[in-house]
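Students often ask why we bother encoding 3D structure as a string. The short answer is that it lets us treat folding as translation between two languages. Here is a chain of 285 residues written in the first language.
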Amino acid sequence: MQIGFVGVGLMGGGLARNLIRAGKDVLVYDLSAEAIQRTLEAGTTGKAAGSLSDLAGCDLLITSLPLPHHVKGVVIGEDGLYAKMKKGATHIEVSTIDPGTANEMKAAAEKHGLGYIQCTLGKTPAHAEKAEEPMFIGGDKALVDKFEEIFKIIGIPSYVGTIDASCAVKLISNMIGMTNIAVLAEGIRVGDKAGLDRKQLLELLTDTGARSFQMDVRGPWIANDDYAARFGLDLALKDVRLGLEMARAWGQDLKAMEAALEYFKQASAAGHGKEDCNAVIKAIG
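And here it is in the second language, the structure alphabet:
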């Protein structure tokens, strides 16, 4: 089976390297020559594609790209890969995208005689590198089962049913996580006004109902004024925006998450988009 992989950056690179380490034939495409080279160093079964069109003959296409319109630009339209791929091939999409975009691509894929699987990812590039990435998989169960071996090579698969469900799990996770950070930042700012040392405040909160994953991980970074990007603020903003667009389309009015979105918008507008998402505190006076 020939696998084509588009997008081998922070997240996609780890997944592609896992496939190469497992001896799978992987044809790699990325705008970054450095990212391609780093991926090909994983083994001898990986090769660089000269252009996107080189991937048209692949049996399986995997895409890992930053934004929904990037994915659509690769596969949809007269010059898109769907129009060039052989019938019976399958596209596995692992980017964080909204259900509307995913369903649009599924319909376009099926129109060309292709299969479509949505597979959103739950954790970090470090987890992807170690094949420990939780994967929330949606689509036709028989088609998903066909690629069980591939999923187990690149991460920890969980079948969630529909395309909508696959997209929603990741967006819900990130909306909750980023709202937690915004609330944590507000609490730290109140602590500042009270004259509390940030490190002491976090230590005291550890044994209370305020404790969260984000407090454990990003609280110390905030206390140390460490805003080096692990998960960039602009990426967080994108995910919260997509999640809320999804929720609004389903008639949901999520007031707390809408408020968090405004903080992330303000922090991005102030020039903190390339910093870690914990830099949202800089938008809270």
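Translate back mentally: The first strand starts at residue 2 and ends at 6. Keep this in mind for the problem set.
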